[in-house]
Structures are given as structure tokens and as C-alpha cells.
């Protein structure tokens, strides 16, 4: 019987081949490789590349907000810092693109760390306001520092990415290069969120006091979340600059920060595949359907109202995460607190004035 059992077990396929995740990943990989052959025109191809560029942004926003519970609206600033840094290094200093790409991420990371220190002293509401202020400061500086950024005229002539003798100046080559970078960012986020660091992020998101009681250094891990999130936002900014061959301040205003937050919420806070889905939908649909593009801000706002009302966890998120992050940081501030009957009946103790004491 033991021999028959062993022979039967050998005929069974490994468990990995019976998993739907394996087959989904296999089909997705095949589709990604055949995409350049089936895309009907260059416009659709450029939209696909734009989606790939925005995926690291959505992942970084989800890391800061969905995993560590910090509601920020300043990703466009780190996005722009990476774009301007990479463009200026390549154009004015002749730095090779791979080095400029890495430096762009590191410079954005430094600014993210510097921003995280003052945010440690405030609550979630004021943290959001501080990141909005930082995003606006960057936009104003980029718009008015004409000697460095050329102001509203932007920086044209940003060259295509180049690694040694290979120049990625065609759409298929750029597609595979950016796809590799985006896949690396996803693998990094996946490993990070499934490590002890990711578990610390989740513990802080659930309850900061309980996390600190368990020995987690809450301040250090919050700074770490900002550092990793801003790093990949800077990498995405470098990718954008060398894709468009142009950098201008209009691409990094507050509307873009809100769009990045919407990507994370639509896909699902705390869900890395949801970030990919959110970026794909919010970037591709307005570009593929022109009537939607004209009313993009209106439709995005309407979508946010519907999501926060009926499905705050997003498409692929968890309801518990939505309650911790979205309800605590957004809905809680929109709905006034109800006063208990005991609070209404309880009045402050009456204190007598010196004149009344003298009369008594």
C-alpha cells in the first residue's frame, strides 16, 4: 500500500501548478511579452507606458498610506524632484542615465526623510495638511526658479534612457526597460511588506500605542515608510522625464497628488495588486476615451464619493484597512461627533465670584 501511495503521489502535479495565482502570473507574463506585437498604434503604446510609469507611484502611495496608515498628499512633489534631478543631471552634468535614475530616487528619498521628521509631531489630519503644503511649495519653486527649472517653459530636450551603447529611443525598447523597473519596484514592495518591517508598518497602522508597547520604534518606522515611498516616487519621476523628453511644473501639481491617492484607494489600501489595477484604470481610461478626459477631475471626485460611501476598501482592499485609514482620516473629520445624553446633561461646576462669596 505504501508503494502504491508513493506512485500515486508522484503522478500528481506540484501544488504550485494547481494554484490560480501561478496560472494568473503565467498568463500575465505572456500577455506582457506579446503586448508590443498586438498594440494597434503608437498612441495606445504610449498610454501603456504611462500606466507602467504610474505603477511605482501608486505602490509608494499605498506603502505610506495603506500599510503604515499615514494619509499623505505630497507624492507629486517627490515625483517632480526625481524628474527634475534626473533631467538636470543628464543635460547639464552629462551623468549617465542609470546613475541619474538612482540619484533621482535618493534625492527624493532625502526630501521624504526631511519631511517625515516634522510630521512625527502632529496627528493624521495635520500630517495631510503638511504634505499638501510641501507639494505646493515644490510646485511654486519649480514654477518660479527660472534659472534652474526654466519656470513654466519647462526643460525640453531630455534624452532617452541610455545604458552604455544601447539607447532606448523606441517605444518597444522603452516599454521593456520601464517594465523591468516597475517589476523591480513591485518585488521590492512585496518583499518589504512581507518582512518584519512590513509587519511593523501594519502594527503601527492598526494601533500606534499597542505597537510601541510591543517594542516597535514607531518614529523610525514612519520615517522608513516615507523614505521608501519617496524613493520610488523619485524613480518614477526620472522615468517620466526621459519618456516625455520634457519636464514641466504642470505635471507635479496638487491634482497629481490627489490622483495618486485615488489610485491607491480605488485599487485597495493595503493591496499591492490593487495599486496596479488603480493605476491602470485611472491613467488609461481618460486617455482612451476623450469625453472622460475632459471631465477627469469631476469623474474622479464622483468616484471617490461613491467609493468612500459604499466600498471604502476599494476593489481589492480589505475593509479593516479602510476603517483604520480612510474612515479615521477622512470620514471621521467630515461627520461631526455626536454628543451623548450624559454629556448634554452634565454641566461644569458653577464657580462663585468674589462678590457672591462676600454676600454669603
Q: What is shown here, in short?
A:
The protein has a domain at 42-253. It is 74% helix and 2% strand.
Report on this model:
With 360 residues, the protein is mainly α. Helices cover 74% and strands 2% of the residues. The chain has a two-stranded antiparallel sheet with strand order 1-4. It has a two-stranded antiparallel ribbon with strand order 2-3. α9 (196-206) crosses α11 (218-244). The longest helix has 27 residues, at 218-244. It is globular. 37% of the residues are buried. Residues 1-10 and 331-360 have low confidence and may be disordered.
β-strand percent reads under 5%
Order of strands across the main sheet:
1-4
Estimated radius of gyration = 25 Å
Q: Termini, distance in Å? A: 102 Å
Total strand segments: 4
Q: Helical amount among residues, as a percent range?
A: over 70%
Q: pLDDT average, as an integer?
A: 83
The secondary-structure element order is HHHHHHHEEEHHHHEHHHHHHH
- Return residue spans where pLDDT drops below 50 for at least 5 consecutive residues: 1-10, 331-360
Outline, from the CA principal axes? globular
Characterize the biggest β-sheet: 2 strands, antiparallel
Return the structural class: mainly alpha
Quaternary state reads single chain
Q: What is the number of helical segments per DSSP (H or I, 4+ residues)? A: 18
Amino acid at each position: 500500500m505504501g508503494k502504491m501511495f508513493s506512485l500515486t503521489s508522484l503522478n500528481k502535479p506540484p501544488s504550485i501548478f494547481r494554484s490560480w495565482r501561478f496560472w494568473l502570473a503565467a498568463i500575465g507574463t505572456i500577455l506582457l511579452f506579446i503586448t508590443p506585437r498586438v498594440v494597434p498604434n503608437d498612441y495606445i503604446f504610449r498610454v501603456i507606458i504611462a500606466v507602467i510609469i504610474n505603477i511605482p507611484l501608486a505602490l509608494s502611495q499605498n506603502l505610506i498610506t495603506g500599510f503604515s496608515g499615514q494619509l499623505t498628499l505630497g507624492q507629486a512633489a517627490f515625483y517632480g524632484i526625481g524628474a527634475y534631478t534626473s533631467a538636470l543631471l543628464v543635460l547639464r552634468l552629462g551623468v549617465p542615465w542609470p546613475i541619474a535614475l538612482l540619484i533621482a530616487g535618493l534625492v527624493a528619498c532625502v526630501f521624504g526623510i526631511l519631511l517625515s521628521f516634522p510630521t512625527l509631531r502632529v496627528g493624521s489630519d495635520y500630517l495631510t495638511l503638511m504634505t499638501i503644503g510641501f507639494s505646493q511649495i515644490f510646485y511654486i519653486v519649480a514654477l518660479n526658479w527660472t534659472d534652474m527649472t526654466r519656470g513654466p517653459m519647462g526643460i525640453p530636450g531630455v534624452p532617452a534612457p541610455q545604458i552604455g551603447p544601447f539607447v532606448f529611443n523606441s517605444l518597444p525598447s522603452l516599454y521593456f526597460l520601464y517594465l523591468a523597473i516597475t517589476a523591480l519596484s513591485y518585488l521590492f514592495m512585496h518583499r518589504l511588506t512581507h518582512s518584519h518591517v512590513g509587519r511593523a508598518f501594519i502594527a503601527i497602522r492598526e494601533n500606534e500605542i499597542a505597537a510601541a508597547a510591543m517594542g516597535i520604534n514607531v518614529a523610525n518606522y514612519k520615517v522608513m515608510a516615507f523614505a521608501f515611498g519617496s524613493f520610488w516616487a523619485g524613480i518614477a519621476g526620472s522615468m517620466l522625464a526621459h519618456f516625455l523628453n520634457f519636464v514641466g511644473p504642470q505635471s507635479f501639481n496638487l491634482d497629481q497628488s490627489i490622483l495618486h491617492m485615488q489610485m491607491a484607494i480605488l485599487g485597495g489600501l493595503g493591496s499591492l495588486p490593487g495599486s496596479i489595477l488603480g493605476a491602470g484604470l485611472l491613467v488609461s481610461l481618460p486617455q482612451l476615451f476623450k469625453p472622460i478626459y475632459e471631465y477627469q477631475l469631476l469623474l474622479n471626485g464622483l468616484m471617490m464619493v461613491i467609493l468612500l460611501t459604499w466600498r471604502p476598501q476599494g476593489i481589492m482592499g480589505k475593509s479593516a484597512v479602510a476603517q483604520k485609514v480612510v474612515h479615521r482620516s477622512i470620514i471621521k473629520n467630515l461627520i461631526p461627533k455626536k454628543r451623548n445624553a450624559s454629556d448634554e446633561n452634565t454641566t461644569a461646576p458653577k464657580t462663585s465670584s468674589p462678590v457672591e462669596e462676600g454676600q454669603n
